[in-house]
Amino acid sequence: MSGSLRRIHAVVMRHVYVLRSSVPRLLELVYWPTVQMVLWGMITKFVATESSLVATAGGLFLAAVLLWDTLFRCQLGVSLTFLEEMWSRHLGHLFISPLRPHELVLGMYLVSLIRTLIGVGGAALLAIPLFDFWIGAALGPALVAFFAAMVVFGWAMGLMIAAMVLRLGLAAESLAWGFVFLLQPLSGVFYPVATLPGFLQPLAWMLPSAWVFEGMREVLLEGRFDAGLLAGAFLANLVWLAVAAVVFVVLFRQARDRGLLLQVGE
Asked: What pTM value is reported for the model?
């Protein structure tokens, strides 16, 4: 074998060994094709039975995309804020200072909200000249409630992902970009929860996002706001926030006791 081929072989085998030793990386290889296949399969099934939907409710998909991106950006804002501290090996410095863990979490929430307002707000404004669609006019006062519900759900997911990355290491950092999309097919972003197979519908109703998107469609298609759907979203959010807090506290204590706060970074 020539020197060039040996070097190519070495590069290939290095990544093969990395994949063999990292379950998150292996799962990531099959993750996106599977999620996209399920998501667009559901969209196709729904649109095939409701061919006039887009014409009767202009902006339905645009509103769904903007609300979904609110969830994604909030989750990513929390996760990335935490990851940046890990990449810079700054966690140890933070936690030998007077800063307490809950203060760090609240700070991450605020940073996440700022990033979301800038990102989603810019996209919403851009939709006005491009598509003659203003989500504020389409959803009215309900937009504030829907936005708040998605922000809180994003915070809960972001906190859980930050805790898992802290405990498992940076090999699991891909969760920050990929985990939320595992929930997208169950959230009914572009189709009603009833479109899902029966055995998946109870799982969907455990997600605050499913309640929000059902409420969004009620406003856009029927012109009415269902307070019950909003109540379901916020009750589900309380559960997710409680679970996220417990997960973060438990995994943070484990990481601190094992000295992981000083060992993470690039």
From this structure: 0.81
